Structures are given as C-alpha cells and as structure tokens.
C-alpha cells in the first residue's frame, strides 16, 4: 500500500508537471586560471638598461618611472611585478 501511494504520487507529479513547474538551478561561475607570464630576455635587458643606476646604487626607482617604463615599452606587467623583478636583480648584484 505504501509503495502504491508513492508510485501514484510520482505518476501524478510527472503527468501534471509542465515547464512552469521546473526549478532553475544556478551554477557556480568557474574562474579561468591565469598562467604566469615569464620575463623574456629582451624585457630583462630593457629593465637592466633602463634602471642600471638604480641597480648599482641598490635603490628602487619611483613607481611613476616604472609605470612610464612599462607604458613606453608596451610591457603587459604591473608595477608590483616589475618591482619584484628589480628586487631579484638587486639580489643577484650582491
């Protein structure tokens, strides 16, 4: 008897359902994984030539000069990324 009631309910739900009774489920948006871009040899040479005096004096250039450098040479990196590269070059200089 119990199974008969369940079966009748299922049949009733299937026969009476139409498109308006369906529930839409939102799916989570998947983030695209960004791949780290390495520095090319040309970019490293440009950095070393542009900021040579800063590397030898072991000081960091201003953010404005770094931003101008990135725009001038059309390098698709941010100022903090360039600053970390300069930090690496300063460590190599020691």
UniProtKB/TrEMBL annotation:
Residues 1-17 form the signal peptide. Keywords: Signal. This is HTH myb-type domain-containing protein. It comes from Aquatica leii. The lineage of its organism: Eukaryota, Metazoa, Ecdysozoa, Arthropoda, Hexapoda.
